[in-house]
Amino acid sequence: MLADNPRLKKNPNATVTSVAELVSLDSSVTEIVIDNGVGESDFAELDFSRFSKLKSLEIGNNSFSLVDTLSITGLSELESVVIGVRSFTKKRGTGSNNPNRHFYLKDCPSLKSLKVDQISFCDYGVIEIENVDALEVIEIGYDDFTYTSLELKGILIHSE
Predict the structure, then answer these.
(1) How wide is the angle at C-alpha 150 spanned by C-alphas 147 and 153, nearest 5°?
(2) Exposed/middle/buried for 158, CB within 10 Å: 0-12, 13-18, 19+?
(3) Do 89 and 66 touch, CB atoms closer than 8 A?
(4) Does 22 or 11 have the greater pLDDT score?
(5) β-strand 150-153 against 113-116: which pairing, if any?
């Protein structure tokens, strides 16, 4: 049984190749790497809030195109998020966004780096990044957040 797999349950670093493996992860993992092309037709909401010890999240290319809500919230130890090419995009170049598709990145006070590769979140209607005071790097590829506004709230700008 997948939930009994010691590699997934005890290893603080996990590489997953399916939604079933992701769902089976122990909440104490510190690093999650999601392989390219992961996603299923009946998996519409992805919430990482249960991973309270998570420090690093990497989502591969062409993943989760059918996910309508991505929530990365309340993770006090999270330092890095990387999202690959063409992830979280159903329809590219449609000229519109879907107000029912949401990306929330909130209340992650240790987050230093957010990197979103090209052609991701193309048709998302809501993108909110809020209360990530340690954020030093935001890299956004072309065609990301194409038809929606990107809101950065509660972020302190430091100048030297």
Answers:
(1) 160
(2) exposed
(3) no
(4) 22
(5) unpaired
Q: Residue 155 has which token pair?
A: 């972020």
Residue-wise pLDDT tens digits, 87-114: 998 876 655 678 899 999 999 999 999 9
Residue 2: strand, helix, or coil = helix
String of DSSP letters for 142-156: TTTTTTS-EEEES-P
Q: Is 64 exposed, middle or buried (0-12, 13-18, 19+ CB in 10 A)?
A: buried
Residue written as token pair 């935001």: 138
- 74 SS3 class: coil
Distance CA 116, CA 113 (A): 10
Q: Rounded to two decimals, what is the model's pTM?
A: 0.84
